Amino acid sequence: MLRVSLQAPAFSPADAPTVVVNDRVAAVDETARTPTVVPSDHADTLILPSQAAGGAPARVADEPSRRTGIVRYVVERLAGKGGMGTVHVARDVELLRRVALKALSNDVANDRTARARFVREVQVTAQLDHPHIVPVYGLEIADGGRPAYAMKLVEGRTFAQVIAETKREYEAGGVGEQHSLTTRLEHFVKVCDAMAYAHARGVVHRDLKPANLMLGPHNEVYVMDWGICRVLAVSSDDESSSARAVVLSDEIQTLFGGVVGTPLYMSPEQARGCQALDARSDLCSLGLILFELVTLRRPFTGRTTMELLEQAAAGAHETIAHAHGEAIPRELAAIVERAISRDPSDRYADVNAFAHDLRRYLRGDAVSALPESRWQQLVRRLARHRERVAVAVLGFALIAVIAIVGVVWRSDRALKAQQARERRMEAFASEVAEAGDRLETRLLNIWGELDALAMVTTYATEFGTPSAKPIAWLERPGRGADGQGDEGAYSLLSGGSRSAADALARRLTEVQSHQRRLLALAREALGGSTSVAVGTPEAVVQELVTVFESGLIHVVPASTRSERRSDPRTSAWYRAAAVRPGVQWAAVDATQSHAGRELVVGEAIRTAGGQVRGGVGLVLSLDSSLINLMTERQIPDARATLLLDADGTVLATYGEASRPERRSQILRALPLADIERKSQSNDVGFVEIDGLGAPAVVAYDGIDPLGWRLVSIADSLRLARQPEAAAQPKRSR
Known about the structure:
Blueprint: E1 19-22, E2 70-81, E3 85-92, E4 97-104, H1 112-127, E5 136-141, E6 147-152, E7 157-158, H2 159-172, H3 181-200, E8 203-204, E9 213-215, E10 221-223, E11 230-231, H4 250-254, H5 268-271, H6 279-295, H7 305-314, H8 330-339, H9 351-363, H10 374-384, H11 386-463, E12 489-492, H12 498-508, H13 512-525, E13 541-548, E14 552-556, H14 558-563, H15 572-579, E15 584-588, E16 598-606, E17 612-621, H16 622-632, E18 640-644, E19 650-655, H17 660-669, H18 672-679, E20 684-689, E21 696-703, E22 708-715, H19 716-721
Antiparallel strand pairs: 1-2, 2-3, 3-4, 4-6, 5-6, 7-9, 8-11, 9-10, 12-14, 13-14, 13-17, 15-16, 16-17, 18-19, 18-22, 20-21, 21-22
């Protein structure tokens, strides 16, 4: 094996500051040149080719002396400068090519440690012969006797620049193919390949970061700057190994104690100053680079070097979330999380395993960082091998063509039938959702109009101008202007003053137009025919009542007041409106005039100081409203439709649910608990049930203002036989 002496060889100065002297090229014919390669069995110390003091050429073992150097490279321009080295673009005067020439900086040219480290970098890089590691062309001498080496000139961008370009494209509104996530990952996998090779040769980079990864103009990827790499001591007994490790002397290893590297991309153990870093440290650094490539955010947020070191040592990286809100696939996030685990034993076994998981992700396969269930594995495997399955089926078809074709045909037909069945169920649920939306919207419109009426009534009681016209008391009600019904009548509850009530009633005559508008809106919104008089059993609107604490009450139509002798001030809706401000909803049981349940929409009339002076209540027939809603636009294939309150109590019915004996059977079969659970995430949906004599589908939609639910039931088999509907499922509100 080769060993490098810590004693840096002497270098003679070049003839001119811009000329690099290489004494391996003589000014004579090629046959007179002395070999520059020394076999490892001739010497255990590699002496770099140079010109000794006094012009005498250096010797290697017993080889003949070399000729004095001639100009090999001419420096053209500065390419970059680091802490220990300076990189120039130079021209090879022999092979007529441009190269990158890295020389030891003048600041550390006389430092034995720096020279040894520089030579070490050259030797390690030269021995790492991989397509994604920049090749070294030769070790040279720069002016002042400084060591230098020529390598392939890579003109392109660093990964740091690629990340910055991607961020700018996101900010501009779109990312092109050149900067897409897939393209960035494909470049990164090449870096992993290079590092897997280096680790196999026993070399740990220790300074992996986006700025040290180059991307050429033709998508060539190179891992650069091996200046602080660590070479692992590997036994040389195994001479049969095809990839022998690069080995340096133990003294060289001790030169790099303490914390070295770039804090932003350090593994926890490297940030803590661990001396025995291995390949898993580089793997963590690669994971942190992948973090930034995927999220376009830095893995740590510290502002100073010490803050970054503390965060890196603790493994306190940022959350894996995209800088611009884009969703990150769970599999990819799991790969990053595993690679940057704080405990090295929790990371991938090696970079090969890391790269393999990334390639599986790019192919759409399952990744080891996020184990799948057996069912997911099966589905993915079938999806990945569709063509192979098809070939296998054709092979079996040679033996039993008719049988296999029949099975495939039946399976395909069953699959399509199942998909069509699900689409029909979703279309059925969409129809129910639209019906629920219609009911919800119209109730909200009534809500708003009643709120306006309450405000107008409140204003009229305080500031209204008394009317000179006679008041329509219950004993002499007036007719409406349109002849469709009366305008209601006033009456006086027991204990009230007739004169005070008459004065208040005269101020309220100006709100009659608002009352008519509310009644017309309610009749039209809930599907009521204008030919049906308000207050009749089949009408949507049962009555509009305005009552005051003073005992004055106004009811439209007037006939309902003669039938209902109860005091509205004792009703549930009035008490609710008096306690809570705003419009209140209350469902009440059947009355003498109407057999079904009723919905009362009420609001209090208050003084300027907030004291309750009375209330306005609109009484609606829930059964009639639901019937009109369903008649206006039928839900296809619905057998029964029910309106339920938050407790599951039936408020209104339509279809089969209107029959009492059928209603109880439907209520027993309804999976109210499942509907409630699913409604937590989506107030629209469907469930399948048994218990009604045949498989059935229950679709539901929430009526948000009230906490109610519209539920409709259809036969599953009947839905399956129907043509597919064009309706699409309604999204969650």
